[in-house]
Design goal:
Blueprint lengths: L7 E5 L7 H11 L3 E6 L4 H8 L6 E4 L5 H14 L6 E4 L6 H5 L7 H26 L4 E7 L12 H20 L4 E8 L13 H11 L8 H12 L10 E4 L9
Helix pairs in contact: 1-8, 3-5, 5-6
Protein name: Enoyl-[acyl-carrier-protein] reductase [NADH]
GO molecular function, one term: enoyl-[acyl-carrier-protein] reductase (NADH) activity
Organism: Dictyobacter kobayashii
């Protein structure tokens, strides 16, 4: 029997075929999950084209900075999924380009607010709306983070602060939602060639460093993050919550 047979998932953050969110969608669908993908208006065509590759996948619009949009998206997802949600995947992060190009000391108030709102608060906002669709039967909430939340990664700047806030939110949500058997975890992936990662200078050099230094002596692939998300979405991880799971070929354990 497929690991996720009969399970229903709502995924935020698919942008194109290189998106980690898309890799997660593929892994979940492979094991039987029914999917709903959200899209930003400017990404609609890309998301619809990808969704068409997985039979039965629905797509709905959502701007995560807009509470009315979030209300509408979860209401529509509830209708499409017959009032049940088993898996919520949060792959949403953004900071203005200038905040990543300029020194961290020059972070603006507006840029700080935008990064934290989109990259961290949106998880809380989604979890609040997902809980009524999950609490009768339990579920899994997943987010994506990065080790810059703990270590200085030059040019990651305010996004590192946002990821730290996201990870703290994961722990508090895990505590509060646990009484309904809803698990909340995050995956800390190694550097990947995604649309979001291209906004951080030095990515190529850092990937080379990871391949040289990590215990597995290689970089990771999107599919490996997807399969970790599959594990965390399934009953195989039924006693795991509040955790940050590294998928980075072991790079995080190294001293340099």
């Amino acid at each position: 029997m497929p690991l996720l047979e009969g399970k229903k998932a709502l995924i935020f953050g698919v942008a194109n075929h290189r998106s980690i969110a898309w890799a997660i969608a593929q892994s979940l669908a492979r094991e039987g999950a029914q999917l709903v993908l959200t899209y930003q208006e400017r990404m609609e065509k890309y998301v619809r084209d990808l969704a068409a590759k997985i039979p039965g996948t629905e797509v709905i619009p959502c701007d995560v900075q807009n509470d009315a949009d979030l209300d509408s998206a979860f209401a529509k997802a509830g209708e499409l999924l017959n009032g049940r949600l088993d898996i919520l995947v949060h792959c949403v992060a953004f900071a203005p380009a200038s905040e990543l190009e300029n020194p961290f000391l020059q972070t603006t108030r507006e840029g700080f607010h935008t990064a934290l709102d989109i990259s961290a608060y949106s998880l809380v906002a989604m979890a609040k709306r997902a809980e009524p669709l999950m609490k009768e039967h339990g579920g899994s909430v997943l987010a994506l983070t990065y080790m810059a939340s703990e270590r200085v990664m030059p040019k990651y700047n305010v996004m590192a602060v946002a990821k730290a806030a996201l990870e703290c939110s994961v722990r508090y949500l895990a505590y509060e939602m646990g009484e309904h058997n809803i698990r909340v975890n995050a995956i800390s992936a190694g550097p990947l060639n995604t649309l979001a990662a291209r906004g951080v200078s030095g990515l190529t050099g850092f990937r080379e460093q990871v391949a040289h230094v990590s215990p597995l002596r290689r970089n990771i692939e999107q599919s490996e993050v997807g399969d970790t998300a599959l594990f965390l979405s399934s009953d195989l991880s039924r006693a795991i919550t509040g955790e940050i799971m590294f998928v980075d070929a072991g790079y995080n354990i190294m001293g340099a």
